[in-house]
Amino acid sequence: MFAMAAKRLGYRVEAITDAADCPAAHHADRVHVVEFTDEAAIARIASGLAAVTFEFENVPIEAARALAAVVPCRPNPEVLFTTQDRARERAFLMHNGFPCTPHRVVRSREEVVAAVADLGLPAVLKTAAFGYDGKGQRRLDSIAAVNAAWDELGPAPCVLEGWVDFECEVSVVAARDATGAVAVFEPSRNVHSRHILDLSSAPAGLPGRVLDEARSLTARLLEALGVVGVACVEFFVTRSGTMLVNEIAPRPHNSGHLTIEACETSQFEQQVRALCGLPLGSVRQLAPAAMANLLGECWAGGEPDWQAALAVPGVSLLLYGKSEPRPGRKMGHLTALAPTIEEAIVNVTRARALACRTP
Ligand code: AMP
Predict the structure, then answer these.
(1) 93-144 pLDDT tens trace
(2) CA of residue 195 to ligand 1 center, whole Å
(3) Who contacts 194 (Cβ-Cβ below 8 Å, separation ≥6)?
Protein backbone atom coordinates (compact mmCIF):
# COMPACT_ATOMS: atom_id res chain seq x y z
CA MET A 1 0.00 0.00 0.00
CA PHE A 2 2.98 2.29 0.69
CA ALA A 3 4.51 1.32 -2.66
CA MET A 4 1.23 2.02 -4.46
CA ALA A 5 1.05 5.50 -2.89
CA ALA A 6 4.72 6.24 -3.68
CA LYS A 7 4.36 5.12 -7.30
CA ARG A 8 1.37 7.40 -7.73
CA LEU A 9 3.58 10.31 -6.71
CA GLY A 10 6.14 9.28 -9.31
CA TYR A 11 8.77 7.68 -7.07
CA ARG A 12 10.76 4.54 -7.87
CA VAL A 13 10.27 2.03 -5.08
CA GLU A 14 12.67 -0.72 -4.05
CA ALA A 15 11.70 -3.37 -1.53
CA ILE A 16 14.28 -4.85 0.85
CA THR A 17 12.80 -8.11 2.07
CA ASP A 18 13.65 -11.55 3.38
CA ALA A 19 10.78 -13.12 1.39
CA ALA A 20 10.79 -12.81 -2.41
CA ASP A 21 7.00 -13.05 -2.74
CA CYS A 22 6.23 -10.31 -0.20
CA PRO A 23 3.22 -8.09 -1.04
CA ALA A 24 5.47 -5.10 -1.83
CA ALA A 25 7.19 -7.15 -4.56
CA HIS A 26 4.04 -6.82 -6.70
CA HIS A 27 4.37 -3.04 -6.74
CA ALA A 28 8.09 -2.31 -6.35
CA ASP A 29 10.37 -1.45 -9.27
CA ARG A 30 13.04 -3.66 -7.76
CA VAL A 31 13.11 -6.28 -5.03
CA HIS A 32 16.22 -7.10 -2.98
CA VAL A 33 15.99 -10.40 -1.13
CA VAL A 34 18.43 -10.47 1.79
CA GLU A 35 18.69 -11.90 5.25
CA PHE A 36 18.00 -9.08 7.73
CA THR A 37 21.12 -10.24 9.59
CA ASP A 38 23.31 -9.41 6.56
CA GLU A 39 24.05 -5.81 7.51
CA ALA A 40 26.78 -5.38 4.89
CA ALA A 41 24.39 -6.34 2.06
CA ILE A 42 21.68 -4.09 3.48
CA ALA A 43 24.05 -1.12 3.66
CA ARG A 44 25.21 -1.78 0.07
CA ILE A 45 21.61 -1.77 -1.22
CA ALA A 46 20.72 1.31 0.82
CA SER A 47 23.59 3.32 -0.66
CA GLY A 48 21.66 3.35 -3.95
CA LEU A 49 18.49 4.80 -2.37
CA ALA A 50 17.34 8.32 -1.46
CA ALA A 51 15.42 7.41 1.71
CA VAL A 52 14.21 4.34 3.57
CA THR A 53 11.19 3.52 5.68
CA PHE A 54 9.98 0.39 7.43
CA GLU A 55 6.91 -1.72 6.87
CA PHE A 56 7.00 -3.28 10.31
CA GLU A 57 8.80 -2.50 13.55
CA ASN A 58 10.46 -5.86 14.06
CA VAL A 59 13.36 -5.22 11.66
CA PRO A 60 16.49 -6.22 13.63
CA ILE A 61 17.85 -3.04 15.17
CA GLU A 62 21.38 -3.69 13.84
CA ALA A 63 20.02 -3.81 10.28
CA ALA A 64 18.04 -0.61 10.82
CA ARG A 65 21.13 1.14 12.22
CA ALA A 66 23.22 -0.09 9.28
CA LEU A 67 20.65 1.49 6.95
CA ALA A 68 20.58 4.77 8.86
CA ALA A 69 24.37 5.05 8.59
CA VAL A 70 24.13 5.40 4.79
CA VAL A 71 20.71 6.83 3.99
CA PRO A 72 18.03 8.94 5.74
CA CYS A 73 15.73 6.52 7.64
CA ARG A 74 12.30 7.63 8.75
CA PRO A 75 11.38 6.86 11.43
CA ASN A 76 14.89 6.76 12.79
CA PRO A 77 15.95 3.33 14.11
CA GLU A 78 15.91 4.47 17.72
CA VAL A 79 12.11 4.81 17.41
CA LEU A 80 11.99 1.16 16.37
CA PHE A 81 14.31 0.27 19.25
CA THR A 82 11.89 1.80 21.77
CA THR A 83 8.74 0.30 20.30
CA GLN A 84 10.09 -3.18 19.44
CA ASP A 85 10.04 -4.17 23.06
CA ARG A 86 7.03 -3.79 25.32
CA ALA A 87 9.18 -3.30 28.42
CA ARG A 88 11.14 -0.47 26.76
CA GLU A 89 7.96 1.03 25.33
CA ARG A 90 6.33 1.03 28.78
CA ALA A 91 9.42 2.61 30.34
CA PHE A 92 9.29 5.35 27.70
CA LEU A 93 5.58 5.96 28.38
CA MET A 94 6.03 6.11 32.15
CA HIS A 95 9.13 8.31 31.90
CA ASN A 96 7.25 10.81 29.72
CA GLY A 97 4.09 10.80 31.84
CA PHE A 98 1.76 9.02 29.38
CA PRO A 99 -1.04 6.97 30.97
CA CYS A 100 -0.68 3.23 30.33
CA THR A 101 -2.07 -0.07 31.60
CA PRO A 102 -0.86 -1.23 35.04
CA HIS A 103 2.03 -3.63 34.41
CA ARG A 104 5.24 -5.22 35.68
CA VAL A 105 8.26 -6.41 33.73
CA VAL A 106 8.85 -10.07 34.69
CA ARG A 107 11.89 -12.27 34.09
CA SER A 108 11.09 -15.44 36.05
CA ARG A 109 8.18 -17.59 37.18
CA GLU A 110 8.53 -16.14 40.69
CA GLU A 111 8.32 -12.61 39.34
CA VAL A 112 5.12 -13.50 37.44
CA VAL A 113 3.56 -14.86 40.66
CA ALA A 114 4.62 -11.71 42.55
CA ALA A 115 3.25 -9.45 39.79
CA VAL A 116 -0.07 -11.33 39.80
CA ALA A 117 -0.29 -10.85 43.58
CA ASP A 118 0.37 -7.16 43.00
CA LEU A 119 -1.94 -6.48 40.03
CA GLY A 120 -4.63 -9.10 40.60
CA LEU A 121 -6.48 -11.39 38.18
CA PRO A 122 -7.37 -11.56 35.38
CA ALA A 123 -4.08 -10.45 33.89
CA VAL A 124 -2.27 -10.86 30.55
CA LEU A 125 1.25 -12.16 30.15
CA LYS A 126 2.91 -10.82 26.99
CA THR A 127 6.37 -11.46 25.60
CA ALA A 128 8.35 -8.21 25.62
CA ALA A 129 9.63 -8.69 22.06
CA PHE A 130 8.28 -9.94 18.73
CA GLY A 131 4.61 -10.17 19.66
CA TYR A 132 1.87 -9.16 17.25
CA ASP A 133 -1.76 -10.03 16.53
CA GLY A 134 -2.11 -11.80 19.87
CA LYS A 135 0.97 -13.97 19.27
CA GLY A 136 3.03 -14.23 22.44
CA GLN A 137 0.10 -13.45 24.77
CA ARG A 138 -1.73 -15.50 27.37
CA ARG A 139 -4.61 -14.38 29.54
CA LEU A 140 -4.32 -15.54 33.14
CA ASP A 141 -7.57 -16.22 34.98
CA SER A 142 -6.12 -18.16 37.89
CA ILE A 143 -2.79 -18.49 39.66
CA ALA A 144 -2.74 -22.10 38.39
CA ALA A 145 -2.50 -20.76 34.83
CA VAL A 146 0.83 -19.04 35.55
CA ASN A 147 2.94 -22.18 35.12
CA ALA A 148 1.59 -23.12 31.69
CA ALA A 149 1.82 -19.52 30.45
CA TRP A 150 5.39 -19.11 31.66
CA ASP A 151 6.38 -22.52 30.18
CA GLU A 152 5.11 -21.22 26.86
CA LEU A 153 6.31 -17.58 26.86
CA GLY A 154 9.31 -17.56 29.23
CA PRO A 155 12.17 -17.50 29.91
CA ALA A 156 12.39 -14.48 27.59
CA PRO A 157 11.46 -11.27 29.44
CA CYS A 158 7.71 -10.62 29.54
CA VAL A 159 5.34 -7.91 30.65
CA LEU A 160 2.46 -8.81 32.95
CA GLU A 161 -0.48 -6.46 32.53
CA GLY A 162 -3.53 -6.09 34.71
CA TRP A 163 -6.74 -6.78 32.79
CA VAL A 164 -8.45 -3.57 31.70
CA ASP A 165 -12.24 -3.81 31.65
CA PHE A 166 -12.43 -1.18 28.93
CA GLU A 167 -15.45 0.55 27.41
CA CYS A 168 -13.89 0.34 23.94
CA GLU A 169 -10.62 0.49 22.04
CA VAL A 170 -9.64 3.40 19.82
CA SER A 171 -6.54 4.10 17.81
CA VAL A 172 -5.18 7.30 16.38
CA VAL A 173 -2.98 7.43 13.29
CA ALA A 174 -0.92 10.57 12.87
CA ALA A 175 2.00 11.80 10.81
CA ARG A 176 4.86 14.07 11.82
CA ASP A 177 7.17 15.71 9.30
CA ALA A 178 10.80 16.73 9.62
CA THR A 179 9.82 20.30 10.64
CA GLY A 180 7.76 18.92 13.56
CA ALA A 181 4.35 19.59 11.97
CA VAL A 182 1.79 16.95 12.99
CA ALA A 183 -1.39 15.88 11.18
CA VAL A 184 -3.78 13.65 13.16
CA PHE A 185 -6.41 11.46 11.48
CA GLU A 186 -9.90 10.96 12.92
CA PRO A 187 -9.64 8.38 15.76
CA SER A 188 -11.13 5.01 14.87
CA ARG A 189 -12.97 2.57 17.08
CA ASN A 190 -11.51 -0.94 16.93
CA VAL A 191 -13.02 -4.33 17.66
CA HIS A 192 -10.65 -7.26 18.08
CA SER A 193 -11.45 -10.92 17.74
CA ARG A 194 -9.04 -13.46 19.27
CA HIS A 195 -6.59 -10.55 19.83
CA ILE A 196 -6.56 -9.73 16.09
CA LEU A 197 -8.08 -6.52 14.74
CA ASP A 198 -11.44 -7.41 13.18
CA LEU A 199 -13.22 -4.13 12.47
CA SER A 200 -12.27 -0.43 12.53
CA SER A 201 -14.70 2.42 12.13
CA ALA A 202 -14.39 6.19 12.04
CA PRO A 203 -15.80 8.41 13.40
CA ALA A 204 -15.57 6.46 16.64
CA GLY A 205 -18.81 7.82 18.12
CA LEU A 206 -17.25 8.91 21.42
CA PRO A 207 -17.66 12.22 23.28
CA GLY A 208 -15.61 15.09 21.81
CA ARG A 209 -13.67 15.39 25.08
CA VAL A 210 -12.44 11.78 24.80
CA LEU A 211 -11.51 12.16 21.12
CA ASP A 212 -9.67 15.42 21.76
CA GLU A 213 -7.71 13.75 24.54
CA ALA A 214 -6.81 10.84 22.20
CA ARG A 215 -5.66 13.25 19.49
CA SER A 216 -3.64 15.38 21.86
CA LEU A 217 -1.93 12.40 23.57
CA THR A 218 -1.03 11.02 20.12
CA ALA A 219 0.48 14.28 18.89
CA ARG A 220 2.50 14.63 22.12
CA LEU A 221 3.62 11.03 21.90
CA LEU A 222 4.93 11.38 18.33
CA GLU A 223 6.84 14.45 19.42
CA ALA A 224 8.28 12.77 22.53
CA LEU A 225 9.37 9.77 20.45
CA GLY A 226 10.83 12.01 17.75
CA VAL A 227 8.98 10.17 15.00
CA VAL A 228 9.28 11.47 11.46
CA GLY A 229 6.66 9.54 9.54
CA VAL A 230 3.37 7.86 10.37
CA ALA A 231 2.65 6.22 13.69
CA CYS A 232 -0.41 4.79 15.40
CA VAL A 233 -1.28 4.86 19.08
CA GLU A 234 -3.75 2.27 20.37
CA PHE A 235 -5.76 3.20 23.45
CA PHE A 236 -8.11 1.52 25.88
CA VAL A 237 -10.96 3.89 26.81
CA THR A 238 -11.94 3.04 30.39
CA ARG A 239 -15.53 3.11 31.63
CA SER A 240 -14.85 6.48 33.28
CA GLY A 241 -13.70 7.89 29.93
CA THR A 242 -9.96 8.06 30.64
CA MET A 243 -7.44 6.89 28.07
CA LEU A 244 -4.69 4.32 28.58
CA VAL A 245 -2.03 3.79 25.92
CA ASN A 246 -1.92 0.09 25.02
CA GLU A 247 0.59 0.06 22.17
CA ILE A 248 2.52 2.28 19.76
CA ALA A 249 3.12 1.22 16.15
CA PRO A 250 5.74 3.42 14.44
CA ARG A 251 4.27 2.89 10.94
CA PRO A 252 0.99 2.99 9.03
CA HIS A 253 -1.47 0.76 10.88
CA ASN A 254 -4.22 -1.69 10.04
CA SER A 255 -6.78 0.56 11.75
CA GLY A 256 -5.78 3.36 9.35
CA HIS A 257 -6.41 1.38 6.16
CA LEU A 258 -9.82 3.03 5.85
CA THR A 259 -8.04 6.35 5.19
CA ILE A 260 -7.28 5.06 1.66
CA GLU A 261 -10.90 5.56 0.57
CA ALA A 262 -12.16 7.84 3.33
CA CYS A 263 -9.62 10.67 3.59
CA GLU A 264 -8.21 13.37 1.37
CA THR A 265 -4.75 11.91 2.02
CA SER A 266 -4.28 8.26 3.01
CA GLN A 267 -1.95 7.16 5.81
CA PHE A 268 0.32 5.65 3.14
CA GLU A 269 0.57 8.83 1.08
CA GLN A 270 1.24 10.65 4.36
CA GLN A 271 4.13 8.25 5.01
CA VAL A 272 5.52 8.94 1.52
CA ARG A 273 5.23 12.69 2.09
CA ALA A 274 6.94 12.55 5.50
CA LEU A 275 9.69 10.31 4.11
CA CYS A 276 10.37 12.46 1.07
CA GLY A 277 10.16 15.89 2.68
CA LEU A 278 6.86 16.88 1.06
CA PRO A 279 4.26 18.83 3.07
CA LEU A 280 1.79 16.60 4.93
CA GLY A 281 -1.61 16.33 3.25
CA SER A 282 -5.08 17.10 4.57
CA VAL A 283 -6.46 14.40 6.89
CA ARG A 284 -10.04 15.52 6.33
CA GLN A 285 -12.41 12.54 6.23
CA LEU A 286 -14.88 12.63 3.36
CA ALA A 287 -17.44 10.13 4.69
CA PRO A 288 -18.03 7.76 7.61
CA ALA A 289 -16.05 4.58 6.97
CA ALA A 290 -15.68 1.06 8.29
CA MET A 291 -12.99 -1.52 7.50
CA ALA A 292 -13.24 -5.29 7.99
CA ASN A 293 -10.15 -7.50 7.83
CA LEU A 294 -10.08 -10.58 5.63
CA LEU A 295 -8.16 -13.36 7.35
CA GLY A 296 -7.02 -16.62 5.78
CA GLU A 297 -10.11 -18.40 7.21
CA CYS A 298 -12.20 -16.54 4.63
CA TRP A 299 -10.62 -18.77 1.95
CA ALA A 300 -11.63 -22.02 3.72
CA GLY A 301 -14.39 -22.67 1.19
CA GLY A 302 -12.27 -21.67 -1.83
CA GLU A 303 -11.95 -18.21 -3.42
CA PRO A 304 -14.29 -15.81 -1.57
CA ASP A 305 -17.36 -14.50 -3.39
CA TRP A 306 -16.11 -11.05 -4.41
CA GLN A 307 -19.04 -10.66 -6.80
CA ALA A 308 -21.46 -10.68 -3.85
CA ALA A 309 -19.27 -8.51 -1.58
CA LEU A 310 -18.71 -5.80 -4.17
CA ALA A 311 -22.43 -5.57 -4.93
CA VAL A 312 -22.93 -4.03 -1.46
CA PRO A 313 -23.14 -0.22 -1.86
CA GLY A 314 -20.01 1.78 -1.05
CA VAL A 315 -17.79 -1.26 -0.54
CA SER A 316 -14.26 -1.56 -1.92
CA LEU A 317 -11.77 -4.43 -1.74
CA LEU A 318 -8.02 -4.42 -1.25
CA LEU A 319 -6.10 -7.70 -1.45
CA TYR A 320 -2.44 -7.81 -0.47
CA GLY A 321 -1.34 -10.47 -2.97
CA LYS A 322 -0.23 -12.99 -0.33
CA SER A 323 -0.06 -16.44 -1.89
CA GLU A 324 -1.09 -18.68 0.98
CA PRO A 325 -4.28 -18.00 2.99
CA ARG A 326 -3.26 -19.39 6.38
CA PRO A 327 -5.67 -19.10 9.35
CA GLY A 328 -5.17 -15.80 11.18
CA ARG A 329 -3.13 -14.32 8.30
CA LYS A 330 -4.27 -10.89 7.09
CA MET A 331 -4.93 -11.36 3.35
CA GLY A 332 -6.73 -8.10 2.60
CA HIS A 333 -9.61 -5.94 3.77
CA LEU A 334 -12.93 -4.46 2.76
CA THR A 335 -13.87 -0.82 3.34
CA ALA A 336 -17.36 0.65 3.23
CA LEU A 337 -18.18 4.34 2.97
CA ALA A 338 -21.75 5.37 3.83
CA PRO A 339 -23.77 8.42 4.88
CA THR A 340 -23.74 7.22 8.53
CA ILE A 341 -21.21 5.19 10.52
CA GLU A 342 -23.92 2.67 11.45
CA GLU A 343 -24.60 1.98 7.75
CA ALA A 344 -20.89 1.73 6.98
CA ILE A 345 -20.46 -0.91 9.72
CA VAL A 346 -23.54 -2.89 8.63
CA ASN A 347 -22.47 -2.80 4.99
CA VAL A 348 -18.86 -3.84 5.48
CA THR A 349 -19.90 -6.64 7.85
CA ARG A 350 -22.50 -7.86 5.36
CA ALA A 351 -20.03 -7.67 2.47
CA ARG A 352 -17.53 -9.78 4.40
CA ALA A 353 -20.16 -12.36 5.39
CA LEU A 354 -21.19 -12.64 1.73
CA ALA A 355 -17.58 -12.92 0.54
CA CYS A 356 -16.61 -15.50 3.14
CA ARG A 357 -19.91 -17.34 2.79
CA THR A 358 -20.60 -17.19 6.55
CA PRO A 359 -24.16 -16.79 7.86
P1 AMP B 1 -1.95 -6.08 22.07
O2 AMP B 1 -1.18 -6.99 21.16
O3 AMP B 1 -1.25 -5.79 23.34
O4 AMP B 1 -2.44 -4.85 21.37
O5 AMP B 1 -3.28 -6.90 22.47
C6 AMP B 1 -4.23 -7.27 21.51
C7 AMP B 1 -5.63 -7.11 22.05
O8 AMP B 1 -5.83 -7.94 23.22
C9 AMP B 1 -5.95 -5.71 22.53
O10 AMP B 1 -6.29 -4.87 21.48
C11 AMP B 1 -7.11 -5.99 23.49
O12 AMP B 1 -8.31 -6.22 22.79
C13 AMP B 1 -6.67 -7.28 24.18
N14 AMP B 1 -5.86 -6.93 25.37
C15 AMP B 1 -4.51 -6.87 25.43
N16 AMP B 1 -4.08 -6.48 26.66
C17 AMP B 1 -5.18 -6.29 27.42
C18 AMP B 1 -5.41 -5.87 28.77
N19 AMP B 1 -4.40 -5.59 29.60
N20 AMP B 1 -6.69 -5.77 29.19
C21 AMP B 1 -7.72 -6.06 28.35
N22 AMP B 1 -7.57 -6.46 27.07
C23 AMP B 1 -6.34 -6.58 26.59
Answers:
(1) 999 999 999 999 999 999 999 999 999 999 999 999 976 666 789 999 999 9
(2) 7
(3) 134, 328
